[in-house]
Each structure stands twice: as structure tokens, then as C-alpha cells.
Amino acid sequence: MTADAPTGVGATALAVAGFRALESERADRLFEDPFAADFVAAIGGTVALEPKWVGLAHHVSIRTRFFDDQLLEAAEAGCRQVVLLAAGLDTRALRLAWPDGTTVFELDLPDVLAFKERVLAGRPPRCDRRTVVADLREDWPAALVAAGLRVDEPIAWLAEGILVYLTGDEVERLIGALRGVSPMGSRLALAHSLRNTRGVWRSTLTEEPVGWLARHGWHGVAHDTVGLSERYGRRVPGSGPSHAVLASAVRAQEPTG
Q1: At the topology level of CATH, where does 55-250 sit?
Q2: Measured between alpha carbons, how far is 191 from 202 in angstroms, rounded to an integer?
Q3: pLDDT (0 to 100) of residue 238
């Protein structure tokens, strides 16, 4: 393990990178991430899958493909600003075919971004890529605006794997802050959980996601991971996070309650 390897919640990003690297090796891969294995190699690790992680690896592959599609659709629909909240070791700025004029903001803690920059040094992005040091528990919108985010133009937001590591109050503050800086036509994609099965998670959704999003000014759709697996032609493993919620939403209404 190298001295600059992410720790705490940031360390989970290394495991997720390993899962993305394994998916990228498959002949029937759902996406290709040519940089994922580099993060694992940078800490002296190897890409391998233990049987107990098969279900989680499947979930990561499904959600990665789903969010790839969601973000590209949002960009094509006019959201040329994309914000990856708690971006971790996400490499979408480098590997996706973004429309001309797209800016991708990667927001995370300083140690995560420093490690990421070291590993990706010299790799050109396929968009205007901007890293933003900020903590989601603090005034992160101000940091994004300082980095050039325009809150008068549509934004595509992604919260892929962070919400379960925030408390319920922190999640509510985050979704409220998103409403405050998202003009109509903005998009939101997120992953959360309906129940806590891992012990390390700090929050789960206490209501179905569509109603929860509507209360915060988003018209949302929940996506079943089993259905998505079928859409992508993948068999669902015998075990996996079936309790996980993937949701997509459009900022097109005022809160309903």
C-alpha cells in the first residue's frame, strides 16, 4: 500500500476500481475502463475477484453502465455541465465520448483527488475536466461555483456511491442543496439503499425513491437492478445488493410536500 492511497470511505473507491477493471476484461463487457487497473496497480495490488464479492461486482458493473448511459443522455439533452459528487476514482471524463463543450467537475476530498491525479498524470480527458476539492458535509456548492459551474444552465449530477455513507440528515441537506443550484432541465442520477445490510452504511432510504425525489423538486424514476441486468443480458448472481436503488430524475417541478 502506498502512502498516498485513499483511506476511509475513499478506500472503497479502490475496490470499485478493481471491479471495473475485471468487467473491462470480459469479452461481453458492459463498458471499458482502461484506467481502472492502474489504480489497483498503483498501490501494489492485483485485480482478482473473491467469491464473496461476486454479487457486489455484478452490481457495480450494472450501475456503472446505467450511469454511463444516463450521463451521456443528459449531455446530449443539453446538460453540458456534469458534476460527479464524491467522484472517487471515476474516469468518465477520460473514457466517455462527451459532446463538444462538455465540462465534467469531479468533486472529492483532497487525498482522493491527489492520488487520482498521480495515477492519471499525462492521460488526456475527453472533455473540459475540472477537479474540485470539497466535503459534501460542508459548503460544496460554493466550491463548484468557484471552479466555474454555472447555476443558470442545466447540470447533470451523479451521486453514485456516497449517499449511504452520509447520515440521514446529511443526505437531506445534500438533496436540498442540489435543488437550490439546479435550474429546470437539470438531471440527477443516484444510487442509495432501502436497507442496511453491511453495517458500515450510515443511512438508507426510509421511503420509496420516487416520492422522496418529488418532495425535493425532482421528477424521478426508480430502476430495478434485476430488470437492468436483464436489459444488459446479464444473469443475476445468487447473492448481491438487491436492496440497492438506482434512480434517475429531472428537475422539472417544485417540491410536492
Answers
A1: Rossmann fold (3.40.50)
A2: 14
A3: 66
How many CA atoms does the CB half-sphere of 37 hold within 13 Å?
12
* 249 beta partners: 188, 220
Catalogue the E-assigned strands of 51-196: 81-85, 103-108, 128-133, 155-159, 187-193
- Identify any residues that bridge with 82 across adjacent strands, giving them in sequence order: 104, 156
For residues 154 and 43, the model is more confident at: 154
Task: Write out the three cell numbers for 243.
Answer: 436492496
What are the distances in angstroms from CA 157 to CA 36, 88, 126, 220? Answer: 22, 14, 18, 13
pLDDT of residue 170: 93
Residues 96 and 35: beta-carbon distance below 8 Å: no
- Rounded average pLDDT over 213-240: 89
Query: Pick from 3, 5, 13: which is nearest to 165 by CA?
Result: 13
Distances from the Cα of 107 to the Cα of 143, 195, 215, angstroms? 9, 26, 25
